[in-house]
């Protein structure tokens, strides 16, 4: 068995095995006691099992309701959204998929070695996002070199945003030394920034307080996240035309998601905290002037009440948009349960403001539906190349990755300018890494030195 076969076998064990194994290995490398590293790894694995169960509950509950809403609305859309699990399978089913992980590991090591990133990405499973982009570019161009270049640039990009997001994630979610170099979540962060600037300048709107704590204080029990989940579940059930039993069951299931998701995230953080502390101590001992973020799945963020509440509200909005948007061919389905991953970092930009997140999220879903409809032929072509079962569908897509503006940027520039387009992104990303990790810290040190000198005087 060669290295690639061994790596493919390891990744084939699934994320709930791969991530704990990596956590254990990194814990040992960072000097954690074997018993402590093992308990951390198992706790992380258990947390992910629980989180996946809750996400499955969300998908299994929303899927039939969404399908019934679609039937009630009489939708006739030709492109089926098969969801991120299918997109990941398609990505890792191509030759490029097998190369993405060793490329990701190698680039991450080199960039850390030269001080060009603070992000140590242990979330290797989600490098499928890079493989997805490169598979689409290969389906478009048939150029393996161009596709591999896109993989490299994409991985550098998510590491750059991992560096940028570390402070944001610590401030909003309270996760020290954790970041999300996650291809599905990052685009929402960028998309939200101009909306936040705009909201801050609109009279009345800028004063709206709609974070979960404010809502709970104003509405009492009806502002609690579990009750909000039940109310949203009732609303979705009514739109789907459910009977009393169906309404009650969907309401309780949505309330359960709102309660259980944060608890599973807390379990994950319990396992990650010792590793994060060991990583920080390791770096401080050897590189006193540097810090290190542990790159994790954005699943850690989806349990936040603002994220879940906004996401559930966006489910019927997304289906309605699919009906009314001229030119849209995408039938939202598989990735409706993935909306929390799309908006988790938007909620961080808006400081948990649910109204802002839903308004900006609505515009975001408009772009996602159009982009995912545009890229659907390439997704279908990549699926055929990976021997993916289309299950009788002529055209498929995946909203949570195929509809992102980053997908549009990479595929569009590859189509228009070939290698020049991809390398232009690479130059910008490399400049960003240099600025964030070399120039900006130097400026901060000079400012601090100046303040210290002034204090002495």
Walkthrough of the structure:
With 457 residues, the protein is mainly α. It has one domain. It is built from 17 helices and 6 strands. It has helices spanning 3-11, 15-29, 34-73, 84-92, 95-113, 128-141, 144-173, 186-199, 212-219, 225-240, 244-286, 305-324, 339-349, 354-385, 399-402, 405-417, 419-456; strands spanning 79-81, 119-121, 178-179, 293-295, 330-331, 395-397. The strands form 2 sheets. The protein has a 3-stranded parallel beta sheet with strand order 5-1-6. Helix 4 (84-92) crosses helix 6. The mean pLDDT is 87.
Summary keywords:
457 residues, sugar transport, globular, EIIC-GAT, PTS_sugar-sp_permease, PTS galactitol transporter subunit IIC, single chain, mainly alpha, transmembrane helix, 3-stranded parallel sheet, 73% helix
Structure summarized in a few sentences:
It is found in: Cell membrane. With 457 residues, the chain is mainly alpha-helical.
What are the SSEs and their pairings?
Blueprint: H1 3-11, H2 15-29, H3 34-73, E1 79-81, H4 84-92, H5 95-113, E2 119-121, H6 128-141, H7 144-173, E3 178-179, H8 186-199, H9 212-219, H10 225-240, H11 244-286, E4 293-295, H12 305-324, E5 330-331, H13 339-349, H14 354-385, E6 395-397, H15 399-402, H16 405-417, H17 419-456
Parallel strand pairs: 1-5, 1-6, 2-4, 3-4
Helix pairs in contact: 2-3, 3-10, 3-11, 3-12, 4-6, 5-6, 5-7, 6-7, 6-14, 6-16, 7-17, 8-13, 8-14, 10-11, 10-12, 12-13, 12-14, 16-17
GO biological process, one term: phosphoenolpyruvate-dependent sugar phosphotransferase system
Pfam families: EIIC-GAT (PF03611)
GO molecular function, one term: galactitol transmembrane transporter activity
């Amino acid at each position: 068995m060669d290295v690639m076969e061994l790596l493919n076998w390891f990744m084939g064990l699934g994320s709930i095995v791969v991530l704990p194994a990596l956590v254990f290995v990194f814990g040992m490398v960072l000097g954690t006691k074997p018993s402590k590293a093992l308990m951390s790894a198992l706790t992380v694995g258990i947390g992910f099992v629980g989180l996946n169960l809750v996400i499955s509950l969300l998908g299994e509950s929303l899927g039939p309701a969404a399908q019934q809403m679609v039937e009630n609305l009489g939708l006739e859309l030709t492109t089926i959204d098969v969801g991120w699990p299918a997109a990941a399978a398609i990505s890792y089913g191509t030759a490029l998929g097998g190369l993405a992980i060793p490329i990701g590991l190698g680039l991450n090591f080199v960039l850390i070695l030269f001080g060009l990133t603070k992000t140590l990405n242990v979330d290797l499973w989600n490098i499928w996002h890079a493989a997805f982009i490169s598979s689409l570019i290969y389906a478009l161009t048939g150029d393996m070199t161009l596709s591999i270049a896109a993989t490299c640039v994409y991985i550098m990009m998510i590491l750059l945003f991992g560096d940028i997001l570390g402070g944001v994630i610590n401030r909003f979610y309270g996760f020290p030394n954790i970041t999300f170099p996650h291809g599905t979540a990052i685009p929402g962060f960028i998309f939200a920034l101009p909306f936040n600037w705009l909201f801050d300048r609109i009279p009345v709107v800028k004063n709206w307080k709609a974070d979960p704590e404010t809502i709970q204080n104003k509405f009492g029990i009806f502002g609690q996240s579990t009750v909000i989940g039940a109310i949203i579940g009732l609303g979705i059930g009514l739109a789907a035309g459910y009977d009393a039993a169906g309404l009650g069951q969907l309401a309780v299931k949505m309330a359960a998601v709102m309660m259980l998701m944060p608890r599973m995230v807390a379990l994950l953080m319990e396992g990650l905290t010792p590793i994060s502390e060991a990583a920080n101590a390791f770096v401080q001992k050897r590189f006193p002037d540097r810090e290190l973020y542990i790159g994790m799945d954005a699943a850690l963020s989806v349990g936040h009440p603002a994220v879940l509440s906004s996401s559930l509200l966006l489910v019927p909005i997304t289906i309605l948009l699919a009906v009314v948007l001229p030119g849209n061919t995408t039938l939202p389905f598989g990735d409706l349960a993935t909306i929390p991953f799309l908006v988790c970092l938007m909620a961080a930009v808006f400081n948990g403001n649910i109204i802002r997140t839903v308004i900006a999220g609505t515009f975001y879903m408009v772009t996602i539906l159009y982009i995912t409809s545009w890229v659907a032929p390439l997704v279908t072509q990549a699926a055929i190349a990976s021997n993916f079962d289309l299950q009788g569908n002529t055209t498929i897509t995946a909203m949570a990755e195929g509809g992102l503006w980053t997908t549009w940027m990479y595929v569009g520039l590859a189509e228009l300018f070939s290698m020049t387009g991809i390398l232009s992104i690479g130059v910008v990303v490399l400049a960003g890494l240099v600025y964030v990790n070399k120039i900006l810290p130097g400026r901060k040190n000079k400012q601090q030195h100046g303040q210290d000198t002034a204090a002495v005087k």
